[in-house]
Amino acid sequence: MNPGFPHREGLSHLSKLFVLVDPFHEYATRFVDVIAERFGYRPLCIHTGGRGEFRRGLREFPSLRPHEHLFASRERLQAVGRELASRDVAGAIPFSEAVLGRTIDLLRALGSTWNDESVLALLRDKFALKDRLRRMCPPVSVGRSHRTVSGASFSLEGIPDRFVLKPNGGYGNVSVGFFTRDTPQAAVERFLQQAPATEFVVEEYHPGTEYFINGQTDAQGASLVVAIFRYERVWANGFQVDWLTHKVPHAAPEFAQLESYARTVVTSMGLRRSPFHLEVKLSGSDARMVEIGARLAGNGNAIVCNQLHGGKLDLFALAADHYLHDGVRPEARLDWDAYDSRELTYVHGVSGEKKSLIFSLEGLETVERHPQFAGWVKKPVLGQRLRATIDLFTSPWCFVVQGPKGVDLRQATAEMRELIRINQRRAVLRRPALQVRDTWQRALAWIERGWK
Question: pLDDT tens across 56-89, in order?
Fold first, then answer.
């Protein structure tokens, strides 16, 4: 192996392996447990970050410590894959959107991708994916779109009256702008230049309500839908951001319509042996795709989906079976009675602060004692960096509420939202100490990146 790889702990090199790239994530640890129980395979963890990041990750996820760890830059992942070809590797698990591209690069070198190369290429090219769906016979409704680049002069000629600009390979609602034909061209160009991406897709804005659909495809490409949620967004800091996200009852009329549309999309794009997370706009009977991810839903939603089916469903086991093995896999166990027995809503925090730290934090214990509180997705902490909320990653906090079937959770969400008080006290002594700690941590991270 490459001498840059530091160590192999225990006897992991004697067992069949599966690979996790940058595995410091709750989903990765769940896959480790599930795959060990079902198949006895051990994880090979490949890290593209610095050693300081590695040490911090092991403190947060100590269960990964006994396993085999390798270090490699992102540019060397394909070379690492070729070096691993001589070992008994069952496959790799792209457990989140953030690691999907890196995992695909590694799998290509290993020669063990779970989907056709043409399909994998679509997962980082929104324009090509939607263009393929438009060209199907019959075509799948996705709306008009075309490519543009941040450095080019943007022309409004031929642009729809309302349109969306988004990074062609982006995710997490990052750098998504909403415009009209009346928007000054200079404002559109400024948006393109300020965003970190270089290639964008211009899409026709589709009105209606937005949903996300979670499911799994098998080796033949047949898809199974396990849950649907409805977004409720608000305008904040010039962007549309998540405010509430509601579970859609299985018996709701839109569920069957969205389920059918999801199956059409997944079959048409050729995705197989993969979980999927599909976002769709629905206006009356007209459904149009917004995005699709070939992975489990983030924000802990895969765990919530298991709970919604009364614990009978295990999306991690279902995905692992298909990621690592071709052919017929065990059927999922769904319990729609349990799914429909309660209401569930995500409550998302929205910050207007440009850049700050949390130096005063009150009300969390009161929120946790509320009878309809069901757990934190992202719990705010003292010293946490705050930015103006413009996407999923800049939301300062998120939690879940639930109640019996038919209950309106809106009052509870409003009450609990008001209980969280950030930086409403001066915290004269605490504030400078937290600022010093934050400066020191950022300096260490900068030094580690230089040593990487």
Answer: 899 999 999 999 999 988 888 888 888 888 888 8
- Determine the pLDDT at residue 13: 43
DSSP 361-387: EE-HHHHHHSTTEEEEEE---TT-EEE
More confident of the two residues 18 and 124 = 18
CA 403/CA 291 separation, integer angstroms: 30
Contacts of 198 (CB under 8 A, 6+ apart): 149, 150, 151
Residue 401 forms beta bridges with which residues?
345, 373
What is d(CA 300, CA 443) in angstroms, rounded to the nearest whole number?
Answer: 31
Distance of CA 51 to the CA centre of its chain: 25
Enter the tokens of residue 127: 């324009």
pTM here is: 0.87
Q: Write the CB contacts of 368 (distance below 8 Å, at least 6 apart in sequence).
A: none
Residue type, 150: S
Q: What angle do CA 292, 178, 241 make, to 5 degrees?
A: 65
Q: What is the pLDDT of residue 6?
A: 36
CA distance 236 to 4: 45
Alpha helices in 123-194 (DSSP H): 126-135, 185-194
Q: How far apart are CA 51 and CA 55, in angstroms?
A: 6
Give the whole-angstrom CA distance, residue 319 versus residue 310: 18
Which residues have C-beta within 8 Å of that of residue 144, sequence separation ≥ 6? 160, 203, 204
Pick from 378, 355, 399: nearest CA to 237 = 355
pLDDT band at 12 (very low <50, low <70, confident <90, very high): very low
List pLDDT tens digits, range 269-312. 999 999 999 999 999 888 998 999 899 999 899 999 999 999 99
Least confident of 101-110, 316-325, 335-344: 101-110
pLDDT at 120: 83
439 phi and psi angles, rounded to 5 deg: -60, -40
Residues 6+ apart with CB under 8 A from 414: none
Instruction: Indicate the average pLDDT of the chain.
Output: 86
For residues 322 and 39, the answer to whether their CB atoms sit within 8 Å is no
Q: Which two tokens stand for residue 118?
A: 């043409």
